[in-house]
Write the structure tokens for this entry.
Amino acid sequence: MADRPSVIVIGAGIIGASIAYHLAKAGARVTILEAGEPGGVATRNSWAWINASWGNPETYFRLRIRSMAEWRRLEREIPNLRLAWLGGLLWDIPPDELEAYAKEHATWGYGVRRADRAEAARIEPQLRNPPDFALHVAEEGSVEPLAAAQALLAAAQAQGATVIANRPVRQLLPRNGRVVGVETGSGILEADEIVVAAGAGTAKLAASAGYALPLDTPPGLLIASRPHPKLLNGLVMSPGLHVRQTPEGRLLAGADFGGSDPGADATATSLDLFEVMRGMFKDGTALEYSHHTVGYRPMPGDGFPVVGRPPQIGGLYLAVMHSGITLAPAVGLFAAEEIVSGTRDDLLKRYGPERFVGSN
Ligand SMILES: Cc1cc2nc3c(=O)[nH]c(=O)nc-3n(C[C@H](O)[C@H](O)[C@H](O)COP(=O)(O)OP(=O)(O)OC[C@H]3O[C@@H](n4cnc5c(N)ncnc54)[C@H](O)[C@@H]3O)c2cc1C
């Protein structure tokens, strides 16, 4: 590969944007091809909680906590990411599981603090019915996901990358066991390396090079209120409703952070959920409904990220995952290191595409 490899990144969501930024910074010549407008599909419709929270094996926790640290590095490198480290209050699982989670994650070094009813009410004074037992993690945060993707793309462009919008890639071009380029509606483009960070579109593109990626793309519905004076100090993960307040003052919520199932009638589902949200706050009836969104969550077959080179296909790198908002900084950094210098970070060890070969 040349000293300054040429790389095509397919997809300008948070993952493609982060990979492109880190590649350009590492000296690669980067072209980003985006089917629609830059900013992604899942990304712009995400709840965008940055966390290393419960339910994960330790290897996955380690990747997430590293990515949280990388967000803080990016915050120093790039203006206008719109991060907010406001902390999260969580009680969406039964108390015994909450306690087990607290113990385990505290052992791993996560800043989990137990909160009784009085403490929960102190953290979030506008809750109508504070929980008797919750956990608070001050180091968690959120980001305005579209703004962050756009800021990463702008930073990539400042390092020499080119962003081409409204340019869907129809297929990858394999030749003698190596992907050498892509076919778009406006012709063929070649490069030393092709990165597919196309979210829900990744499986189709990978298949065109002979790699079968098991990928679910469940819908996730979020509701948003009109801008409202401050009701929340941080993120709230309660049973049946996860809610945060955006910098514009909108309350943004789903049945959980991944969004609700929209069901047969997404508007009806949204209005029902909005009533649940109103009931959550002391002065909740003053909240006004604004809109709902539905995003499609890229979910690899076993629920964990797929990042790396499929075996026996040269020139191809895949990066697709849920929790991509949390993971984008670390994945972007590690993918760029692997592509430019051949070094694969140990934190990615469990997450290579080879684990699905022969499984479907
Ligand atoms: C409702 C909801 C809530 C979520 N909550 C959280 C959360 O709280 N925390 C968290 O960490 N994660 C969360 N996620 C997951 C997170 O948003 C995703 O993992 C992340 O946004 C994926 O980013 P991406 O860049 O891979 O995909 P996308 O944002 O979908 O971007 C992929 C891009 O590729 C483009 N593309 C596709 N096919 C092609 C093609 N053939 N040619 C060119 N371009 C193509 C698409 O147009 C798109 O712009 C949530 C997701 C949803 C939907």
